[in-house]
Each structure stands twice: as structure tokens, then as C-alpha cells.
């Protein structure tokens, strides 16, 4: 574990040495949080922040996220706390952004068969993410993450479209998403509907509901999301 962590730190230093042009290094940040619960009494809360230069082309990216998970086991509940720092490279283009990151997930419990919406267990994690917001009409997002320690894959695709536009008062968007989790003999598929309110530029508030199809333990889930990206 120590060697892997030191390798990640070395990679972080190397990546950020790329951005040695102070005149062009106007940094921006994105904060995101998710709260989710389902009819099987699983409760999930996640928050994270990422930073990257606000310019077109290739840029270094870094971030950290943490989640808290509670799920029932028999007549009692188990709680898990996980922290994932990561670094990588991103490419900003007109109407969207793409990035790849590597990090290490630190977890206080080694969970192997809990259906969650993030990386589980200790281990090196690779993540790829594509965001497309275009001109405000059609929007899309794709995220894929693999944890080498727990050998688990999580992926989610989402597409939204503008439903109403109130000018400076913001807009309402609607769309759908599908998430997939696979690891250690356990898998689940999670389709759902998303309704989003964008009260101002760089602020997104989403509410979602859907069905989680587990290995024999299906559930209905509900969630809320907050994304803050000043300057976008």
C-alpha cells in the first residue's frame, strides 16, 4: 500500500509541474455532493471537490471525495467511511470536458457485497469522466471507475435536455440515467429519472428516483445532488 501511495504522490507532483505557466494558470474548482437512500434502508452520502486550470486544452486536475454509507446486516446496521484523493489530466473543449484520474481509496471497512454508488474497499482507483453541456440544450455525462483492490467496476451514463428556460432565473432540465456496478460476484443495474434545476450559471440541483436491481434484493432509490462550478 505504501509503495502505491508514494507512486501516486510522485505522479501528482509530475502532473502539476506541467502547469508551470503562471500567466495562464487561472484555477477553478467544482464542488459536488450526493445524498441517497432506498427502500432497503441503505443510506449514502458523498461530497467532493476538484480543482483544475480554467483554460482550453490539456490541464492537470486534482481532487478528493469522501462518502459515508450505512446498510443493514441482519438485525443491525454497518457504517463505512471512505476517502479517495486523486490526480490526473483533463482536456477542456468547447461545450465540455474530459478527464482521467488515478487515486487511492482509503476505507475503514472492506465491503464486498454492498450496492453503493462509489468505489468500495481499499485500493488504487482509475476514473474516466466525460461531461458535455453544449449550448444548454442537450447535456450528457459518462463516468467509469475501477477499484483494483476490491476488483469492482462502477459506471454511470446520464442524458438530460432543457425542459424550460426562465432566462436569468435559470432553467429546468429532465433526463434519465443508468448506473452499473460489478465486483466479486455481485452486480446491480440502476436506471432512473433525473429532474434538475439550474438557478444560475455554475449551480445545479438535481433530484432523482429510480429502481435498483440487485442480485435478489431490488429496491427503489431516491436522491438529491448539488454541483457548484463558479465561472462556468
Helix and strand arrangement:
Layout: H1 2-18, E1 27-38, E2 43-53, E3 57-73, E4 76-93, E5 96-107, E6 123-132, E7 138-147, E8 152-165, E9 171-183, E10 186-200, E11 203-212, E12 219-228
Antiparallel strand pairs: 1-2, 1-12, 2-3, 3-4, 4-5, 5-6, 6-7, 7-8, 8-9, 9-10, 10-11, 11-12
**Unreliable residue runs:** none
Please list the strands of the largest sheet in the order they lie side by side. Answer: 1-2-3-4-5-6-7-8-9-10-11-12
Q: What is the N-to-C succession of helices and strands?
A: HEEEEEEEEEEEE
- Describe the biggest sheet? 12 strands, antiparallel, barrel
Strand residue content: over 45%
Radius of gyration: 18 Å
The structural class is: mainly beta
- Total beta strands: 12
Please work out how many helical segments DSSP would assign: 1
Broad shape: globular
Into which percent range does the helicity of residues fall? under 10%
- End-to-end separation in angstroms reads 37 Å
User: For the residues shown, what is the average pLDDT?
Assistant: 85
What does this protein look like?
The protein is mainly beta. The protein contains 1 helix and 12 strands; from the N terminus they run H-E-E-E-E-E-E-E-E-E-E-E-E. The chain has one helix at residues 2-18; strands spanning 27-38, 43-53, 57-73, 76-93, 96-107, 123-132, 138-147, 152-165, 171-183, 186-200, 203-212, 219-228. It has a 12-stranded antiparallel barrel. A hairpin with a 4-residue loop joins strand 1 (27-38) and strand 2. The longest helix is centred in the first third of the chain and has 17 residues, at 2-18. It is globular. The mean pLDDT is 85.
Amino acid at each position: 500500500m505504501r509503495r502505491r501511495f508514494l507512486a501516486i504522490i510522485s505522479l501528482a507532483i509530475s502532473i502539476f509541474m506541467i502547469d508551470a505557466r503562471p500567466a495562464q494558470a487561472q484555477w477553478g474548482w467544482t464542488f459536488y455532493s450526493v445524498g441517497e437512500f432506498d427502500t432497503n434502508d441503505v443510506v449514502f452520502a458523498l461530497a467532493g471537490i476538484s480543482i483544475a486550470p480554467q483554460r482550453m486544452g490539456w490541464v492537470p486536475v486534482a481532487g478528493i471525495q469522501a462518502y459515508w454509507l450505512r446498510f443493514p446486516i441482519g438485525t443491525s446496521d454497518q457504517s463505512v467511511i471512505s476517502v479517495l484523493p486523486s490526480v490526473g489530466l483533463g482536456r477542456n473543449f468547447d461545450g465540455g470536458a474530459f478527464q482521467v484520474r488515478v487515486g487511492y481509496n482509503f476505507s475503514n471497512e472492506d465491503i464486498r457485497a454492498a450496492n453503493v454508488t462509489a468505489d468500495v474497499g481499499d485500493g488504487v482507483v482509475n476514473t474516466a469522466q466525460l461531461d458535455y453541456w453544449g449550448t444548454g440544450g442537450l447535456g450528457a455525462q459518462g463516468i467509469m471507475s475501477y477499484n483494483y483492490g476490491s476488483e469492482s467496476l462502477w459506471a454511470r451514463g446520464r442524458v438530460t435536455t432543457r425542459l424550460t428556460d426562465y432566462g436569468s432565473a435559470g432553467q429546468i432540465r429532465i433526463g434519465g440515467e443508468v448506473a452499473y456496478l460489478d465486483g466479486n460476484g455481485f452486480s446491480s443495474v440502476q436506471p432512473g429519472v433525473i429532474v434538475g434545476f439550474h438557478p444560475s450559471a455554475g449551480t445545479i440541483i438535481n433530484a432523482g428516483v429510480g429502481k435498483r436491481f440487485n442480485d435478489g434484493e431490488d429496491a427503489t432509490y431516491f436522491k438529491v445532488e448539488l454541483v457548484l462550478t463558479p465561472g462556468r
